Amino acid sequence: MNTRRLGEKGEDFAVEYLKRKNYRILCRNYRAGKLGEIDLIAVKDNRIIFAEVKTRTGDIFGTPAEAVSYKKQKTIKKVASCFLKEYNMSDCEISFDVIEVIMTKDYRPVNINHIEEAF
Q: Looking at the domain that runs over 3-115, which CATH code has it been given?
């Protein structure tokens, strides 16, 4: 199984999920130089979410959200700050979310769990 493809398919599924929940996708895989990246940035009701998408085929190694380390959380917050400055959106309400996606080995979605304000 190709883990990169699994991650891309998980992000595709997360985008569709957010759209069904009336979020507008602002950016996908936003990079701030060498600082790092954020998988998805979306907005709904003047609230911007910075989402880390974690895709797995099971929970044998723990839940997908457990893979978002403290170091990764700090990186996401730094990159989010860059995004807010770049697009002059510093006055918006923000949330750091995790979207867990469980898929089959042939890339079919089984479950999605959107954890709002995860960190």
A: 3.40.1350.10
